[in-house]
Write a structure and sequence with these properties.
Number of strands: 0
CATH class: Mainly Alpha
Largest sheet: none
Structural class: mainly alpha
Shape: elongated
Number of helices: 7
Oligomer: single chain
Strand content: under 5%
Distance between the termini: 12 Å
CATH topology: Methane Monooxygenase Hydroxylase, Chain G, domain 1
Order of helices and strands: HHHHHHH
CATH superfamily: Phosphate transport system protein phou homolog 2, domain 2
C-alpha cells in the first residue's frame, strides 16, 4: 500500500482524533486573528481608533491561542502510527499554518503603532489595506475547508487548494496598487513606513496561505 493511501486512511479513520480536531481549531484561531486585523483596519477607515485597538487586543489573544494549539499539535504528532515522512509533512503544514496568524499579528503591531504615534493616514489607504485583509480572510476560510475535507473528499480538498492559490494571486495584484497608493500619499515618513510594514505583513500572511495549500496538495497527491 502506498504512503499516500496510508496517510489519507489515517485521516479518514481518525476524524475525531485530537490531531484532526486540533487542526480545525487551529484554523479557526487563525481565521479569528485575520478577522480582527480586518476589523481594526476597517475601524480606522471610519476614524475609530478605540474600536481598532480593541480589535488588535483580540488579535493578539487569537494569535496566542493559535500558538498554543500549534504546540499541542506538534507534540501529538511526535507519537502515533504514521511513518516519519508523513509525520514531518503534517508538522510542516501545522507550523506553516501558524505563520498566517503570526504575520496577521505583525500587521496589527504596525497598525497599533500608527495609532499610538498619532500619524495621519488618509482614509483611502486604510480602505485599500482593508480590501487586502478581506481577501486574506477568504483565503484562510478556504484553508479551513481544505483541512476539514482531508480524508473525506480529495476533489473538494484540491479545489480549495486551487482557490487559495487564486486568492494569493489576486492579493499579489492588489498589493502592487496599494503599495503605489502608499508611496504617492501625502504622509510623513513614519506613516509611510508603518503602512508599508502592514502591507508587507498582510502579503506575507497570504503567501503562507498559498504555501499551506501547496503542502496540502503534497499530502493528497505527491506522497
Amino acid at each position: 500500500m502506498s504512503s499516500r493511501r496510508t496517510l489519507l486512511d489515517w485521516f479518514s479513520k481518525r476524524k475525531e482524533d485530537f490531531v484532526q480536531r486540533g487542526m480545525r481549531r487551529h484554523c479557526l484561531a487563525i481565521i479569528d486573528a485575520v478577522n480582527e486585523a480586518e476589523r481594526s483596519i476597517s475601524a480606522l477607515s471610519r476614524s475609530d481608533p478605540d474600536t481598532a485597538l480593541r480589535a488588535i487586543d483580540r488579535l493578539i489573544l487569537s494569535e496566542r491561542e493559535a500558538d498554543r494549539i500549534e504546540e499541542r499539535l506538534v507534540e501529538q504528532l511526535t507519537t502515533g502510527d504514521l511513518n516519519p515522512g508523513e509525520r514531518e509533512d503534517l508538522m510542516h503544514l501545522v507550523r506553516k499554518m501558524d505563520k498566517i496568524a503570526d504575520w496577521a499579528m505583525d500587521a496589527g503591531v504596525h497598525i497599533q503603532l500608527a495609532i499610538e504615534t498619532d500619524v495621519e493616514v488618509p482614509t483611502h489607504i486604510w480602505e485599500a489595506l482593508r480590501i487586502i485583509c478581506s481577501e486574506l480572510t477568504l483565503a484562510a476560510r478556504l484553508l479551513l475547508r481544505a483541512v476539514e475535507s482531508i480524508g473525506d473528499n480529495a476533489d473538494v480538498t484540491l479545489k480549495c487548494v486551487q482557490n487559495i492559490k487564486g486568492q494569493e494571486r489576486a492579493i499579489d495584484e492588489i498589493n502592487y496598487a496599494v503599495m503605489k497608493k502608499i508611496l504617492l500619499a501625502e504622509m510623513d515618513f513614519r506613516a509611510t513606513m508603518l503602512m508599508m510594514g502592514s502591507l508587507q505583513a498582510l502579503e506575507a500572511s497570504s503567501d503562507c496561505c498559498k504555501e499551506c495549500a501547496d503542502a496540502i496538495a503534497i499530502l493528497i497527491t505527491a506522497r
